[in-house]
Amino acid sequence: MGPDAVTDTRYEESRTKVQPLRFVLRWVWRLIRIALLIFVLAHVYAILLKWVPVPGSITMMERTLGGHEFRRIIMPLDRISPHLVTAVIAAEDARFCQHDGIDFEAVQKAVEERERGGRLRGASTITQQTSKNVFFWNGGGYVRKGGEAWFALFIDGMWGKRRVMENYLNTIEWGDGIFGAEAASRVRFGKRAADLTEREAALLAAVLPNPHKWRVDPPGPYVSGRAGTLQARMRVVANEGLDDCVLEPEKWQARQQP
Known about the structure:
Layout: H1 3-48, H2 58-65, E1 71-72, H3 82-92, H4 104-115, H5 126-135, H6 141-159, H7 161-171, E2 178-179, H8 181-189, H9 198-206, H10 221-239, H11 244-247, H12 249-256
Parallel strand pairs: 1-2
């Protein structure tokens, strides 16, 4: 075999090795471009939702495909009882007006409690729950949690507190394929969300940790007791102005001035 033949053989071997690498790199680049496109489109969608009602969610689609009767009536925040706003803040996120989408103080306390041998306590804010309800799905582990945290920070700044609360109360599930405060109020109490009493609002908020198991029509002893505790918390929230960023934003903003 002459020198030229040896060179050609080595060239072909090298080319054979390079081609699979190029194929892999080409597909990696394609996946990166697709991921970037999804990232951009998701943020454009999030920006639009500052003004446009949330049309639906992955969880809503799952419930429908699972055979549940889907019920949802979108309502603006000023047609939902302020009692319900205060109730969900008291139940789910007392620092809603004070954090920027993620309550890092609550996260730190949960970590410290876990390190001391306590149970793993959730520290998910209303904003994070809204992020999950609007953009993601139940389950998904750390990948979903990471995306949920990012969008919580994004929508808290982009939408503002009132819009976050409005979308939360229009996308949260109250069991049995019932989504949003208006549908829950009509099904559970036979009235509009605007007419909910303090007690009824507390009952709805009381079942949010597990709306598929706990009932408000009628409530069992545990839910009834939890609602009573929430009513006491609601008065604290109202007295300390912890719901002012939603119910009285001008007063809240004035208090934030140096």
